[in-house]
Structures are given as structure tokens and as C-alpha cells.
Amino acid sequence: MNLTVVGLGLIGGSLAKDLRTKGIAKTIIGSDKSLIHCQKAKELGIIDDYKPLEEAVKEADIVIVSVPVNATLKVLPQVLDNISEKTVVMDVGSTKSEICKLIQNHPKRKNYVANHPIAGTENSGPEAAIDGLFDKKTTIICEQEKSDPKAVLLIKIIHEAIGMHVIHMDADEHDRHIAYVSHLSHVISYVLGKTVLEIEKDETNIFELAGSGFASTARLAKSSPEMWTPIFLQNKKSLLKSVDEYIKNLNDFRELIANNDENALFEEIGKINDIRRVLDGLALKRAKGH
Ligand code: NAP
Fold first, then answer.
1. pTM of whole model > 0.85?
2. Are residues 139 and 13 in the same domain?
3. pLDDT digits (tens, 9 = 90+) for 73-82
4. Which end of the chain is more exposed for a tag (fewer CB within 10 A), N or C?
5. Is residue 284 part of a domain?
6. b/e map of 12-40 (b: 16 or more CB within 10 Å)?
7. Which residues of the chain have pLDDT under 50?
């Protein structure tokens, strides 16, 4: 198949790598607003060549749009305007409602499959692309009833080929759920990073003591503003609700500490430990292929 990837960063690059390894993509054409990223992606063998957007999508069987979600609002209609009748287009954006609403009446709406792979790292650009990023992870296809069933099937098949579990959701439902499990985690990590940077003036201390749990909790705070500013703004409504609930819980937790309420604190942490059963239990199930 001829694959075109628009946006040659972590996600687009990693998808290109896996789809080539699995023999699904025979030729991979890239397109990116950054010439340096185009050149780098070619040098790394992620793409065979790069072209301007209109040209890059013309001959494609599949187009993957993998740019920040504010750029997706501009790029996706341009892609749909320029593809052939048989081309299938998917995006990978971390928000879905605004993107789906924008193209709901596009004449080629049926060629598009709204998609969000739940996999990633805090790094960006073509050099961040890695093999096997999606293995045993989940991807969410939204509003499948608005896409051609053959297009949905193709997108499902290629994700399963790279080891992913495919689930379906309504776009608003996706944004609501993802606000809690992904977007809120990023807000918390950024604010933790900010708090520690402000209070701990000695950077060596931060580095030396990072093993205490700070490094893993603040990892997401390394993620780029180009990607996360538009995600927070596009998912504002659900995100604000989750942030408000988090602030309430944080205040309640603070009170337990302030009041030396040892039993309640002990009990509360014990209850929250249930997250281990949820996360580890599901990971085990997934590893066994359920
Ligand atoms: P990335 O590494 O920063 O890659 C995005 C690429 O798109 C960059 O090369 C960027 O160039 C380019 N770009 C920006 N605007 C463009 C435009 N108008 N036209 C063409 N190229 C453009 O970001 P990423 O992490 O791969 O994220 C891409 C998408 O995946 C986003 O929609 C994000 O929500 C989604 N996603 C990310 C993760 C994650 O963990 N990172 C997980 C799941 C889904 P410049 O750098 O020069 O701007």
C-alpha cells in the first residue's frame, strides 16, 4: 500500500516504522511544515520521500494525519479536498469532538476515520519515533457510523497488525473519558514541575532527589507546549470538570494530613491502592491476549 504521513513526529514516525516492518506500507511519502523534519525522517529511513501536502496525498491508499490538534483542523480538510475517491484518511489526534464536528459535512467525510492511539512518550519530532510503540496498546475509533465500513475495517486491520486493541466510542464520550485518564495527568505533571521549579531553587537538588518519585510523576511535564496547549483548549469543558474534581480531592487529602488524621489517611491510601488491581490486572489480561 502507498502510505502518506502528514506530520513526521513521534506518532506519525512511529506508525510509519511499524507499518513498514509489518509489510503493510510499501511506499511511504511524508509531508511536514518543517523541511528539517522531512529531511531527518528521510535520512532515518522513516519515509522514502517527502512532498508538499497536495502532491503527497494524491496517490495514497492511506493518509495518516499526525500533527498537533489545532493544525489538524486546517490540515484534515486540505487532505480530504485532495485525495482520490478510494483513499482512506485517519488522524491520531488526542481530541476528537472538534475535529469530527469540523468535517461532518465534508463531501469525503466517509473516507475519514477518526482515531486516537493511546500510546506515546514525552518526546517529539522524527528522532523520537520508535519501533513497537503501539504494541499491546489500545486505539479508539470514534463515530465509526459516519465512515465507510470498508475504511473502518482497513484502519482496524492495520492497527491490529501492529499489536493494538481497537475499541469504539462516540467523539464526545472519548473527550470526556480521555480528560480524566490522559489530559488531567498532564495538567498535574506540569503543575508539579512548576511547583518544584519555583520552590527548589537548587537544580542539583532536583536532579539528585528525583529518584524519590518526582522523575516518574513529572515525566509528562517534559511534553511540548505545541502539542498540549491546543489539546487543553479543545477539551476545555471536560478537562475543567476533571481539574475541579482533582482540586477537591487534593484539598480533602491535604486536610487529612493537616489534621494528623492517621487512621483516615491510612484508610484513604489503602483504598486508592486499588488502582494497582485495575492497572496491573488489565495489563496482565492484555498480555494474555484477552
Ligand atoms: P510531534 O512529535 O511534535 O510531531 C508533529 C509534527 O507535525 C511535527 O513535525 C510538526 O512540525 C508537524 N506539524 C505541525 N503543524 C503542521 C502542519 N500544519 N502541517 C504539517 N506538519 C505540521 O507530535 P506527536 O507527539 O507525534 O503528535 C502528533 C499527534 O498525535 C497530535 O495530534 C497528538 O494529539 C497525537 N497524539 C500524541 C501522543 C503523544 O504521546 N505524543 C499520543 C497519542 C496521540 P513542527 O515541530 O515544526 O511544528
1. yes
2. yes
3. 999 999 999 9
4. C
5. no
6. bbbbbbbbbeeebbeebbbbbeeeebbeb
7. none
83 Cα to the center of ligand 1, angstroms: 21
Question: Does residue 150 fall inside a structural domain?
Answer: yes
Same domain, residue pair 117 and 191: no
Tell me if 18 sits within 8 A of 77, measured CB to CB.
no
Q: Which domain holds residue 180?
A: 174-259
* pLDDT 10s digits, 230-260: 999 999 999 999 999 999 999 999 999 999 9
To test the ligand 1 pocket, which listed residue (4, 8, 11, 92) has its Cβ within 8 A of the most ligand atoms? 11
Asked, for residue 268, whether it belongs to a domain, the answer is: no
Is the same domain home to 40 and 158? yes
Number of structural domains, the chain?
2
Q: What is the CATH number of the domain that holds 153?
A: 3.40.50.720
Among 70, 59, 80, residue whose Cα is nearest residue 4: 59
Helix (H, G, I), strand (E, B) or coil at 56: helix
